[in-house]
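Before the break, one more example. Copy the sequence into your notebook; we will annotate it together after we see the structure.
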Amino acid sequence: MTAPEQTVKAATYHNNKGDLFSSFDVTDFEVPKGRDEVWRFVPLRRLRGLHDGSFLPATSPDISVDVPEGAKGVTVETVACDDARLGQAGAPVDRVAAQAWTSMTEATVVTFAKDSVNNDAVTITIRGKGLDSTTFGAVAVIVEPGAQARVNFELVGTGTHADNHEFVVGDNAKLDVVVHANWNDDTVHVGAQRAVLGRDATLRHAAAVFGGEVVRLVPQVKFTAPGGDAEMLGVYFADDGQFFEQRLLVDHAEPNCKSNVLYKGALQGDPSSERTEARTAWVGDVLIRANAQGTDTYEANRNLVLTEGARADAVPNLEIETGEIVGAGHAATVGRFDDEQLFYLLSRGIPAEDARRLIVRGFFSEVINRIPGAELRELLESKIADELEGAEF
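Here is what the structure looks like once it is written out:
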């Protein structure tokens, strides 16, 4: 008789980075503490009870889906929590994600039909409902075999919100998805994003975080058949009083798959402010399992600390269980300006403040230029310009 599976405290790791305890039931998780590995960077007291059940009354989020005119094979449905299409990407691996699953009253399912091709993005907008309530939700994006799709998430407004997004990318299908966290600066958001890729499937996932008081995103990708290709991009810019965390996992569970991860962030604090410091944390886990021969993967995180009163933590992790791979590597940096770049611009007569802003915008351009959609790229460029407006560094 097989022994019953034991609940793991706060979803700490099992034998490797990919073997996490998971459950759809929040009661299966203990309340996280500050010393728990997966929560050690997070200011738990600022989560407004999302982690321990003490949140304000729960309600459904305000979600709208805009399907472009002329779209083919796109279906949008509001479904019950027990719909069989939910949960295909796996169960939550931490207590807040499980709380969102347990507390939600409905979910949104967006399906792209087999072999359909949609080059214009479906936009999913999630709006906060204010500070007097808490919202929990889920969105499932299903891309059937052979289909090509683009989805943009716009997260706006004020509130306390936790959700689960899942992406099921079928065989020979392609999905481009952008998550733009443009919350007001008094919003708390904890989001889990899980993707599963079929044979020869392609995922391009990008996260842009500029707004919110506390924003924690947990993207996870798992290959379920050979030939998959995943690219994960991210940009974030934190000011004083803001905390942003990105905690990623790429699980190479099948042979001959590729992944590339590139996140870039900037921080500017205000030592004279009564608010807390600007703070970011990035944790990137890549697992290459024993049967994942032919894997080709690389991950990098770069951070610019622009002022005093700012702190960035960067933790890349690479776990390899087979030596029969094409390549694997990781890198992370936290630093100030490149003095040589600054000197070059100054020597060309560019004022010091303008030169610093040019360096920051150039720093982000490597990532932004790879995000699909010209309008979205322009929007993100403008967001960075807004962050730099009036900055003193």
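The chain has one domain: 9-337. The longest helix spans residues 352-368. Try to locate both features in your own notes.
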